[in-house]
Amino acid sequence: KKEFAKPKSMITSTVLLLTMAGFTFLMGIYFMCIDLLRPGMPEAVVLELKMVGYHCFALGFGFLCYLKLVFDKYKLYLSRPEEDRGGDKET
Question: In which element (H, E) is residue 53 found?
C-alpha cells in the first residue's frame, strides 16, 4: 500500500491492462467473424466460436472495469492527507 501511488507503477499497470483489453477485443472480433474468414467450417463450430467471441468481449470489458477500479483507488489514495495514506516513509 505504501508504494501504490508511484507514477511509474500506475503507467505500467495502465499500459498492461489496456494492452490486455485491446488483445481480447481483437480476439473477440476475430472469433465473431470466423465464418467470413473460414467459410468451410461446420455451423455448430461457428456458433461455438462466436460464443467464444462474446466471452472475449466480456473479458475485455472486465479489464477496462478493473482499470477504472485501479484509477478510482489511486485518486482516493492521493486525495487523503499524507499522514493518513498508511505505510512508512521508508525508502
Answer: helix 43-79
**Residues with Cβ < 8 Å from 17, sequence gap 6 or more?**
63, 64, 66, 67, 70
In the chain, the percentage of residues whose pLDDT exceeds 90 is 62
Give the Cα separation of 34 and 57 in Å (integer). 15
Grid cell, residue 50, equals 462466436
Residue-wise pLDDT for 45-83, tens only, equals 999 999 999 999 999 999 999 999 988 888 888 888 877
Q: What gap in Å lies between CA 13 and CA 29, rounded to an integer?
A: 24
| pTM of this structure | 0.79
Compute the distance between CA of residue 84 and CA of residue 80 in angstroms, rounded to an integer: 6
Reported as half-sphere exposure (CB side, CA atoms, 13 A), residue 71 has a value of 11
How many Å is the Cα radius of gyration of the chain? 20
Q: Nine-digit cell at 77? A: 489514495
